[in-house]
Amino acid sequence: MKRKRLDRDLGWGFQGFPYYQFRLELPEFCGLAGLIDIISGEPQYWHTERAGNVMTAGAGMKWLQLVPEGKSRMLTAMFLPDGRLSVCYIDIIERLEYDPDGVAAYVDKYLDVVFTPQGDLGVFDRDELDAALESRDITRPQYDSALKECELILSELCRDIPKTSRMLCKILKTALERIESGEKPLYTKYQKEITERGN
Fold first, then answer.
1. Which of 7, 79, 141, 199 is least surrounded, with the fewest CB atoms within 10 Å of its CB?
2. Which pLDDT tens digit goes with each residue over 119-157?
3. How far apart are alpha carbons 106 and 95 in whole angstroms?
4. What is the phi/psi pair of residue 184, to 5°?
5. With helix as H, strand as E and coil as C, how does the chain read?
6. CA 185, CA 18: separation in Å to the nearest integer?
7. Which domains, ranges and CATH numbers included, belong to the chain?
8. Residue 167 predicted with pLDDT over 50
9. In this predicted structure, what is the pLDDT of residue 197?
């Protein structure tokens, strides 16, 4: 299983952008929230059947990442510069951890669910999950729990995608209000280097 930081500091084609991390307690969501403000870069796209080419990264986008309490999932809601949800990518995870610099990291358990507000919906990397069980990278209980979490995601978040999209937009609004009221970014070494170069 791979371990990935929420500030996406390596291997994502972009790094060094302001990253905010805080706890949210809302009627819609309770847990850890991370937000990446992608302030520069060329647009990147995924192709989907219903929504067409959806923007996933580029100047002006924001990635809202949510790890709800009591769940084995990490949602990445990718928002366009105008504030509309572009796509939501949900990683099924083994656990959440914290690095010495305070940045949260999750241990990815292969299986992913992806949807767009236009109704695209897919479950991905089942073959990787099966291969991990075959190679004994994960145990049978871990395998079964990943499938169970996938079923819960489909039931809880994907049965009514417009409702979930509205919920994610509302959470983003709250997160941005926190930032506007003075919440400071949790810088990584990469972000510090870029800030220093800009001064």
1. 199
2. 999 999 999 999 999 999 999 999 999 999 999 999 999
3. 6
4. -95, 145
5. CCEEECCCCCCCCCCCCCEEEEEEECCCCEEEEEEEECCCCCCEEEEECCCEEEEEECCCCEEEEEEECCCCEEEEEEECCCCCEEEEEEEEEEEEEECCCCCEEEEEEEEEEEECCCCCEEEECHHHHHHHHHCCCCCHHHHHHHHHHHHHHHHHCCCCHHHHHHHHHHHHHHHHHHHHCCCCCCCCHHHHHHHHHHC
6. 6
7. 3-181 (2.40.380)
8. yes
9. 46
Given the structure tokens 């990442």, which residue do they identify?
65
The answer to whether 85 and 169 are in contact (CB under 8 A) is yes
**C-alpha span between 67 and 90 (Å, rounded):** 10
More confident residue, 114 or 191: 114
Residue 166 has pLDDT above 50, yes or no: yes
How far apart (Å, rounded) are the C-alpha atoms in residues 199 and 197?
6
